[in-house]
């Protein structure tokens, strides 16, 4: 897994803030440990690929299987705090339960020489956040493709009773082949874990720009619908280039998630279809009950919008239709020539413009004289009767 460091507002939790960690210092500590032969057993550290407040991520080679992996290592400064250690191992255990093409796979978790580590699949690519930070606004089709893949990952996780609770652009990796992978199960928990629900009551877990209102309010009944909200906020950001709610600080942003009405996506991007705007608005409903009733229902909605988008695409963009006419056999059945198609000809005559109308033929002179004489005789008869 290749991951960049989180921004200061990346994760809002009620836990006490750890002491500042200088990534370079930690990297040098690990390098010292390697030089002294105290490296993580069975792995060769190759390079540092990311750093955050909770861990440093390294690219490494698993010696026994000769494969490249990613290793997330917790700083020793946090190892003395049982709550951080428990959260770290919970991430590994949650990820280990999942086996899906759109979820970064977990391999191992353990401790060596005072370092807690978590080994996972190494993924080449960029996060959605990196693309957005570079100023990219995703096309509707591309954003839908990514959202559908992540929705499929969430369907798998939710079926196993796990909720992610931190779906956001930084936690979605896009491979060079266009595969979207959900990562970072650091805030994941079993949906119906009564002990965890009681312990977390009134506490806030999530990322301000993408957090659901029920998470902000510290409600104990947070369920799969918080992930629908997080994915909705991410999709909104991808198709508009801006977050659903912004503010001068994290507190103001979260207040707006709870109280402020959402500006519909088409206000910022006129090229969006009605379908995607409707789905996003439903995903970002304030009340969980107003969102989709299941992640599978959400997935089907996204797929329907994608299908309609493809159906409305120009035929030149549809493989197999471009240049089809030149491959039709000369004797293939088709419409009759216009000169023999009476219905078509009649329609043409009716809709023709005045200057295209056929001139009326003049009546012969003898016929005109006979008609005039008849009219005169009728007039004389009327006079006699009077």
The percentage helix is 25-40%
Distance between the termini: 112 Å
Secondary-structure element series? HEEEHHEEEHHEEEEHHHHHHHH
CATH T-level topology of the largest domain: Transferase(Phosphotransferase), domain 1
Which strand-content bin applies to the residues?
A: 5-15%
Poorly predicted tracts of residues: 2-24, 33-38, 317-361
> What order do the strands of the largest sheet run in, or round the barrel if closed?
1-2-3-5-4
**CATH architectural arrangement of the largest domain:** Orthogonal Bundle
Oligomer: single chain
The computed structural class is alpha+beta
- Number of separate structural domains: 2
How many helices in DSSP terms?
Answer: 13
CATH superfamily of the largest domain: Transferase(Phosphotransferase) domain 1
The level 1 CATH classification of the largest domain is: Mainly Alpha
Number of strands: 10
Q: Report the C-alpha radius of gyration, rounded.
A: 34 Å
């Amino acid at each position: 897994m290749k991951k960049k460091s989180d921004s200061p507002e990346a994760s809002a939790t009620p836990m006490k803030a750890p002491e500042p960690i200088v990534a370079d210092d930690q990297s040098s500590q690990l390098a010292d440990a390697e030089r002294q032969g105290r490296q993580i057993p069975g792995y060769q550290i190759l390079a540092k690929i990311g750093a955050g407040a909770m861990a440093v991520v390294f690219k490494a080679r698993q010696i026994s299987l000769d494969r490249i992996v990613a290793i997330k290592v917790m700083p020793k400064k946090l190892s003395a705090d049982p709550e951080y250690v428990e959260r770290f191992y919970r991430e590994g255990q949650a990820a280990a339960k999942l086996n899906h093409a759109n979820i970064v796979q977990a391999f191992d978790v353990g401790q060596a020489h005072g370092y807690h580590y978590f080994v996972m699949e190494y993924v080449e690519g960029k996060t959605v956040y990196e693309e957005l930070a570079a100023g990219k606004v995703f096309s509707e089709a591309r954003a839908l493709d990514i959202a559908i893949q992540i929705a499929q990952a969430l369907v798998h996780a939710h079926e196993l009773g796990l909720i992610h609770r931190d779906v956001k652009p930084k936690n979605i990796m896009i491979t060079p082949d266009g595969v979207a992978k959900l990562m970072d199960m650091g805030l994941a928990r079993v949906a119906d874990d009564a002990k965890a629900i009681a312990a977390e009551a009134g506490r806030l877990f999530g990322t301000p720009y993408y957090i659901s209102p029920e998470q902000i309010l510290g409600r104990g009944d947070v369920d799969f619908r918080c992930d629908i909200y997080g994915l909705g906020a991410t999709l909104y950001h991808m198709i508009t280039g801006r977050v659903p709610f912004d503010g001068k600080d994290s507190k103001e942003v979260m207040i707006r998630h709870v109280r402020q009405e959402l500006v519909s996506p088409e206000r910022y991007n006129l090229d969006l279809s009605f379908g995607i705007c409707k789905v996003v608005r439903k995903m970002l409903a304030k009340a969980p009950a107003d969102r989709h009733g299941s992640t599978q229902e959400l997935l089907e909605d996204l797929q329907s919008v994608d299908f309609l988008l493809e159906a409305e695409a120009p035929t030149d963009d549809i493989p197999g239709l471009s240049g089809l006419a030149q491959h039709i056999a000369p004797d293939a059945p088709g419409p009759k020539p216009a000169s023999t198609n009476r219905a078509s000809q009649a329609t043409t005559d009716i809709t023709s413009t005045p200057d295209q109308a056929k001139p009326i033929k003049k009546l012969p002179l003898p016929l005109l004289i006979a008609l005039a004489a008849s009219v005169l005789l009728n007039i004389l008869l009327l006079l006699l009767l009077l």
